[in-house]
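## retry 2 of 3
previous attempt timed out at serialization; input unchanged, resubmitting
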Amino acid sequence: MTILAVDFGSTFTKGALLADDGAVLGTASTPTTGTDGRGDILDGYRTLRDELDVPDDATVRACSSAGGGLRLAVVGYERTVTAQAGHRVGLSAGAKVVHVAAGELTTADVAGIRAARPDMILLVGGTDGGNSNVLLHNAVRLAKGAIGGHGAHAVPVVVAGNVDARDEAEAVLATTGRPTVLAENVLPQIGVIAPESARAAIRDAFLRHVIGGKGLSRDPAFAAMVRAATPDVVLRGVEVLASVTDGGDVLVVDVGGATTDVYSCLTPEGEDAGLRKDVVAPLWHARTVEGDLGMRWNAEHVVEAAVTEHLLDTVADPDALTAYAARVHERPGSLPVDDRERGLDLELARLAALVAVRRHARPAQPTESPRPLANVTALVGSGGVLRHTDAAGRDHVLGAVLADHAGGWKVPRAARATVDTAYLLFAAGLLADDPDEGHLARAVAAQIVH
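## retry succeeded, writing output
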């Protein structure tokens, strides 16, 4: 048996051909097709299959962030409590959170949600047995609001608030035919966050109502092969990676063209294990997305963030870097052409990684606790800039993260840095939840750190 793992990205479609023992038979990448309204996303997929010489009987597992990925709006009861919990859960489910609203929705609030063009809405609010008025009020507003299409084609809503009001909220949303998926409360009690049920419900809604509606392919085979949004799958891969690192904590930094994503899989111990002093407890398996930190589309914002973090004075030639960032921001498809530009590209990556990890590690609110990363034993880098540089370039970026003692967070005490050079995290994540393929997921993940 061979397995083809495919990631339909916004820019590139990546594939890994795996043997029945998890060995990697080949990897390839090809430009993603069909996202410009011309052609079909499966055109590039077929090119990928040809390049890897995939057998006709290979099993295919796929994820997708093409067409803008999964755009999520979060509607909650109170911004620093249930809305914040919903925001964290949405990120862990692989979504790009494009709007957060709190309290009883007004006409202007509904207009704000509509303007954000979400693919899905996560409706949360109230602890179990607590306030249900806001949740039900917002269900009425969302049922009547013209968000997306109408009836079955409307933007779906995942209800993950006060379970005592869940059935009534579903009934309200059903009056206008809005697709609805129910989940357990993301904040069943103050200080407790429960992401698993909502994460599964978001994945279900993504597959049933979103992926097929993006117009990426006329062939139903595309929707049939996609299992989840790519960031959701990558977080699952990080969880598998943590299971093969002798119980150590894992931190992953993915430096991309538009965003820099940070994933962590932690096992709390000591004081952290009983952490209840925060109103919204931390997610121990978490993802944060820094939408202003990208190597191309947001290159200028990387420099701006570095100034705010007092990092630009660590750059040898800040004027050259600023000019380079402006140039690649204007031409996001550009690649470095010589050693000088490759050095500037690595500087952008270093700054993006440093700022993104600082934001991931620091508390979301002044009253909350920082994320405990001191026990991280594996720091894994991802993204094209790290995959296509040499060992010295990788150390320049990841070594800076491990030496960031002035960053306002506790750096890992004894972490080994590596790069997912073959881009296998997504493949491990795709295989992880199949009972017959779980051992393959671990075998694939082990190749990243061993």
